[in-house]
Automatic annotation (TrEMBL):
Alphabetical list of PANTHER family matching this protein: LUCIFERASE-LIKE MONOOXYGENASE
The protein, known as: LLM class flavin-dependent oxidoreductase
Domain of life: Bacteria
Pfam families: Bac_luciferase
InterPro entries referenced in this protein's UniProt entry, alphabetically: Bact_Lucif_Oxidored (IPR050766), Luciferase-like_dom (IPR011251), Luciferase-like_sf (IPR036661)
Limits of the Luciferase-like domain: 3-237
Amino acid sequence: MIKLGVLDFGRRGDLNSLEIIEQIITYASQAEEFGFNRFWLGEHHLPIPNVSYTNPEIIISLVAGMTESILVGSAGSLISMHSPYTVATNFRLLNNIYYKRIELGLAKGAPESVKVMELTNDKLLTIPQNEIFEEKLNAILGLFNNDEYNLKENKLVIPPYGGVNPEIWYLSSDFKYLDLAIAKNLNYCVSTFHGAGKKLSATKDKLNDFKTVFSEKNGREVKIVLSIAFCTDNSQALQDQNPNQHPSESFNILNITIENLSHIIEEYHDEYGVDEFVLYDTSATNETKILNLKKLNTIFYSDEK
């Protein structure tokens, strides 16, 4: 069965920051009501006056607190900027308050602003991002997975001690890092909208082999998600794809009807054997976003009602 989730980057036209946060919470509540299984929030440090948030951790806690069962997470946390200790403590605590509902998506990106890099991790100015990401990833996993050692040898605790860790996702624009996911026991999400017109470097057989090797190595089934960006408003789609606004935020947005979007989801499902999708609706208003949720619910979940 196909499962659908939602991705939100906290943009709502000309609304102010606090109005956008209210709308994010409403949007998440409606996604839960319409049967969507997860709600992910991106991390972006954009120099625009009405940016609603930067790091999504506070918004994740608000959304989780205002919903009942939907999974809530980051997509993704720019861990090269952040303290591994802070990431581990915040996400484990949240995942035990909102029991097994919090997900941590890991992304390699960095902010556009040199000043933001100076304030968060000035190594980003001189050291390749890949090297910093790998170091931070290993540190986070070490904090999550070694409670007894960390208490005894490092005199630190990630609360609650012995608690349940969040589901961790490796976020990518391709399937090039499947070996890393196996080695580090990470779920895998591929964005189809980072980079225009590219063909994903995987087949159903390759992904089935990946699932088998992952299960043998880690003793569990890996989760795989494809993320799709779309808009039912042509003018908004063109604006979102404008590389002159913020180069790192230029996306390949499908300007499409909900019916045609459902066909694309089915095609991806058949071609890659992937059952889970996270959808980024770039529509400017909450009303349109929620209407699109309702239409998708009718197509994919009507038989369950």
